[in-house]
Design a protein that fits this description.
By secondary structure, this protein is mainly beta. 10% of the residues lie in helices and 31% in strands. Residues 44-269 form the Peptidase S1 domain.
């Protein structure tokens, strides 16, 4: 990626960049947390193959406008039979253009469950204030009988060293197969680290999580946007942005679910 710009981890560079009004490029459609202005990249970088049978609440979010033949766009998390949480920058298109897919490890294959989206709620502060990169989508066809993931509500869990894991179908930058569900361990680095690393990019400790490795090598990437960062069996974060993917000194940034849990839960219960 050229230049120090916030990368949105979304599959579609043009649409996502237009939506990221705070100068942060949102990462959608790939496994790395950052989206390059010169086009989408691929999936989770430096990870290992994962299986949706083990994490049934991990939901692929496809879009008819995706440049990928598989339709891959973003990730999301099933938090109720008919509700998924994703990133606000992933939710800027018409509801009719999205398809949620559950239980499909390889997006170019078949199988699993599918649902269209009937409505979308985007945090109203997204694009107006730092952070707030969260959204809730309502499924037209509920994924009944599928395990859901509870929201993290305790902001104190955002402590340096916490062993979180990120999941996605995004870009691998050659470290793994494309359109394939993967996971990677990304320990929390702490707010102080990202406030320094992203001093000019607007990292906000009030609503974002800094996770990854100081030396790089493992990260979420384009296409992973909106997907789950999991800690202690709860939805801890939502893949949001970064500078490049797995670059030294530029860890992934995630929306901190605990900060927005009350607003998210209100939409989940509606």
């Amino acid at each position: 990626m050229t230049g120090k710009k916030h990368a949105v981890r979304a599959a579609l560079a043009a649409g996502v960049l237009a939506a990221a009004s705070l100068g942060a490029v949102a990462v959608a459609g790939s496994a790395s947390a950052a989206q390059s202005p010169d086009g989408p990249k691929t999936r989770i970088v430096g990870g290992t193959i994962a299986h949706t049978a083990d994490t049934p609440w991990a939901i692929a979010l496809n879009n008819s406008g995706s440049p990928s033949p598989s339709g891959q766009w973003c990730g999301s998390t099933l938090v109720k039979a008919n509700k998924i949480v994703t990133a606000a920058h992933c939710a800027q298109e018409a509801a009719s253009t999205y398809t949620a897919i559950q239980g499909r490890d390889v997006l170019t294959a078949s199988g699993g469950k599918e649902s269209k989206i009937s409505s979308i709620w985007v945090d109203p502060e997204y694009g107006k204030s730092p952070g707030h990169d969260v959204a809730v989508m309502t499924l037209t066809t509920p994924f009944d009988g599928v395990d859901t993931l509870a929201l993290e509500t305790d902001k104190a869990t955002d402590a340096a060293g916490a062993a979180s894991v990120v999941y996605g179908w995004g870009s691998t930058e050659g470290t793994g197969p494309e359109d394939t569900f993967q996971k990677v361990d990304v320990p929390v680095l702490g707010d102080a680290y990202c406030e320094k690393a992203y001093a000019s990019e607007g990292y906000t400790a009030d609503g974002e999580i800094c996770a990854g490795y100081e030396d790089g090598g493992k990260d979420s990437c384009q296409g992973d946007s909106g997907g789950p960062l999991v800690l202690n069996g709860r939805l801890f974060g939502v893949v949001s942005w970064g500078v490049g993917c797995a670059d030294a000194g530029n860890p992934g940034v995630y929306a901190e679910v605990a900060t927005y849990a009350a607003a998210l839960q209100q939409q989940i219960d509606s």
